[in-house]
Amino acid sequence: MDVKTVSESIMIKEIHGERFTPFSLSNKLRAKILLESASFEQGRGRYSFLLIKEAFSVFQREDEIFLQMDGEELSIESQGRDILDVLLSIAEEHRDKQVHFPFPAGGEI
Hints:
The protein is of the alpha+beta class. The chain has one domain (2-97). It has helices spanning 22-28, 83-93, and strands spanning 2-5, 11-14, 33-38, 46-51, 57-61, 64-69, 72-76. The chain is elongated and about 45 Å long. It starts with a strand and ends in a 16-residue tail after the last helix.
């Protein structure tokens, strides 16, 4: 198992798939999200991503956008048109913290 710390609050653990199926591991760890991706370059190789604990969430209530972290709701001031502009702004702030995994549909984590 390889553990990488991407930032102070993000940790990635690599677990090889010989011992667990993604679904059984997701149940065992009580994951909130299970994402799966295949690699065209590695033949049958694929990756599964489990979200165990979310760092924060962004949501919109009527015309106001909030960030929820550690049980607190903070209102976000934005010059953007909608919540997608806010999410893009947050993603841009963390561009240097990327870890590359194959997403054939064009996504990147």
